[in-house]
Design brief:
The structure holds two protein chains of two kinds.
Chain A: H1 14-37, H2 41-68, E1 70-76, E2 82-88, H3 91-96, H4 99-125, H5 129-182
Antiparallel strand pairs in A: 1-2
Helix pairs in contact in A: 1-2, 1-4, 2-5, 4-5
Chain B: H1 18-31, E1 88-91, H2 97-100, H3 104-123, H4 132-135, H5 142-158, H6 163-187, H7 194-203, H8 206-217, H9 221-246, H10 252-272
Helix pairs in contact in B: 5-6, 5-7, 5-8, 6-7, 6-10, 8-9, 8-10, 9-10
Classes of the chains: A mainly alpha, B mainly alpha.
Chain lengths: 183, 274
Amino acid sequence: MDLNPPPGENYANPRICFFHVLFKAGALAFYILSALFSDSFVIIFVVTVLLAALDFWVVKNVSGRILVGLRWWNEIDDNGESVWKFECLDQESLARMNKKDSWLFWWTLYLTAVVWIFFGIFSLIRFQADYLLVVGVCLTLSIANIVGFTKCRKDAKKQIQQFASQTIASRFSSTLQSAFSVV
Amino acid sequence: MSYNERDTVPLNQSSQSDIDEIENLINYTVQSGPATVLPARPPSPPRASIPVSSSPFIPSNLPPLPQKPAYVPPALPPPSNPNANGQQQLTGFGSPPNTLTEPVWDTVKRDLSRIVSNLKLVVFPNPFREDPGKALRDWDLWGPFFFIVFLGLTLSWSASVKKSEVFAVAFALLATGAVILTLNVLLLGGHIIFFQSLSLLGYCLFPLDVGALICMLKDNVVLKIVVVCVTLAWSSWAAYPFISMAVNPRRKALALYPVLLMYVSVGFLIIAIN
């Protein structure tokens, strides 16, 4: 993945992108600033975790669908087994997704997890177990989304490949048929 | 194969609104032959996912369509490996326009109503108690999250010193306690789904929340003990059928004892805070 946004296009969904980034940045910013300025751990914990949870919800339910066309969830079927469902747009719509949107989506997703890991190491070094708790919770939420969407994307790629190979196979066979019919 | 009939589709997205895009998607998939990817499945009914269930795209006014693996497009291999933790199914994406424009408030209301219904299922008497698998089918983790945070906050407010530590300890105790209890049930050979059990243990904290709130408002020791005993019994009664149904009858006590222990210790925490 490249470091710069793909040129030429604008964001197709600027408001969704904004919200996608807003809660992530809000949780990180609140964590950093309040650790510097505030003494009350409870407020830091509750607000940070709340922002992280809101971000999780927004990414999973809104921006994942609109920006990259992927969705994942868990269901419990009638046998009582838990089933993870991964869903993606069909290939044509996936190809039509705005490149800038998806660039932003994936980059911010991975970047926030890296930053939280960084903070986690920081608080480990300082032996602050309670801040480690906050970081742990936020990291769990980020990683859950990353795993979910990455699985979706892999399945989407697999689906595209199989689709393409089936296309090629059927075209090949139709070509053969037409060749034989001519002969 | 009609895959190439879309050669002239403009690739840049920025001029199309979301609704147009979805409408086009539906039109194209309707016009295409069966070999293209179907928008197979209807968006799922408001089922839970982690932690919040429904997305804004679930159509509340569409007729309920059956969900069957038969909808999976023929290019995919059928989901043939049922792992212990579930299968992956790929489907096309079918989302009618009206749920895209569903206001956020509707989604929030739907999720709140799910939390309330889960709470009623777990904590109040209802006919599904004997069949725990069915009862908490639409698990979600928002309810437990709120209850744990609320309990931590209440305990923290009641404490006159070391408020932060009380909160952190309460939260960590409850969260890791729920995880460990679930692992305990699983290791005893029980049949319970991890998130379902987490969700259940979280919802069973609701009576203790109420008890903690009452204890915070009234500072009488005798009253606290009575209230905590009542709410403790209520919590245990709520958790009992789910846990006991999940394991082998001979191991029921082994599975139940840690749950009761955890609730008793939370009860002591509530009484002892001053």
